[in-house]
Design brief:
Layout (H helix, E strand, L loop, with lengths): L1 E3 L2 H13 L4 E6 L5 H13 L2 E6 L19 H10 L4 E3 L3 H4 L18 H4 L3 H16 L3 E5 L3 H13 L5 E5 L19 H6 L1 H15 L5 H13 L4 E10 L13 E9 L2 E8 L4
Parallel strand pairs: 1-4, 2-3, 2-5, 3-4, 5-6
Antiparallel strand pairs: 7-8, 8-9
Helix pairs in contact: 6-7, 9-10
The chain binds adenosine monophosphate.
The site of adenosine monophosphate has 17 residues, from helix 2 and strand 5.
Length: 282
């Protein structure tokens, strides 16, 4: 497996693979890889001849008050995990390689980014859309793999690819969880023992929401109130949002009468965690 730092090296390698008639799958990440990322690499290796993983903490998607500086990084560990799962090349650029001094073009999106995480992180999706567009232009994959863990991001990327006619198939992959239910996340490393226990309210609330839907409750306010009672029972938890939206448009709905996404962001101490379920997956 190759670890490369420059755009030119990625292009050269992908050009060679293309000349050999090979297909290319792509897994964009911010590194500090765990089994969630590994599941995307596995899916890509199943579907494609070659798999590229990007390992880049993208400064553009962090607000000044967020955790850009403290975000965990460990390229050596990431390389071992990615290689063990069949990755052929890791792209680990420095920020200057991605954003030169005169960088001034952005990919922005309206509507889908105005709800959920877009409300509490106003510049986030502009950063995500811009970096993913750039990475797509660099890697030129046949398919790209995203986790349902970041459900709004998945919807935004699908929409961007459609709007901008990018010739890339977007594959959404299931949320991988710890054995007690907590969704795997690089940010889980911020939690101390007490917070780690408290963080279980997210997946527990997800289960409560799923059961309510399974039991035929269609009134979103009723489902959400059951979930909120659970989260609010945990003193270390502070809700950023818990909402039900149309899975495609990411606009709030009152009744589950179409494919819906129930998503939450909850602070456990200072750490902001997300979790969700799609009604279609129940
Ligand atoms: P990140 O490194 O957090 O930006 O995530 C990179 C990709 O991995 C995104 O598409 C995430 O949705 C996905 N991902 C992160 N955590 C998980 C998880 N627990 N299960 C499945 N996919 C995940």
């Amino acid at each position: 497996m190759k670890v490369v730092k420059t755009i030119a090296e990625v292009r050269e390698q992908v050009r060679q693979w293309r000349a050999e008639g090979l297909t290319v799958g792509f897994v964009p990440t911010m590194g500090y890889l765990h089994e969630g990322h590994a599941s995307l690499i596995d899916a890509s290796c199943r579907d494609n001849d070659r798999t590229v993983v990007s390992d880049f903490v993208n400064p553009m998607q962090f607000s000044p008050n967020e955790d850009l500086e403290s975000y965990p990084r460990d390229l050596e560990r990431d390389s071992a995990l990615a290689e063990a799962h069949g990755c052929d090349m890791i792209f680990n650029p420095e920020p200057e390689e991605m954003y030169h001094e005169n960088f001034s073009s952005f990919v922005d999106m309206t509507v889908l980014t105005e709800e959920l995480c877009g409300l509490s992180r106003p510049i986030h999706f502009r950063g995500v859309c811009t970096v993913v567009s750039k990475l797509f232009n660099i890697v030129k994959p046949d398919r790209a793999y995203f986790g349902k863990k970041d459900a709004q991001q998945l919807a935004v990327i699908r929409h961007m690819v459609d709007d901008l006619n990018m010739d890339i198939e977007i594959i959404g992959c299931p949320i991988i969880r710890e054995s007690d239910g907590l969704a795997k996340s690089s940010r889980n490393t911020y939690l101390n023992d007490e917070e780690r226990k408290a963080a279980l309210v997210l997946s527990q609330a997800v289960e409560i929401g799923k059961s309510a839907v399974k039991n035929g409750i269609t009134d979103c306010a009723e489902i959400l109130s059951e979930m909120k009672v659970k989260i609010e029972s945990e003193p270390l938890a502070r809700i950023d949002y818990v909402k039900i939206v149309d899975a495609e448009t990411i606009q709030q709905i009152e009744k589950i009468d179409r494919p819906a996404l129930c998503a939450m962001a909850v602070y456990i101490g200072k750490t902001r965690l997300i979790d969700n379920f799609f009604t279609e997956d129940i």
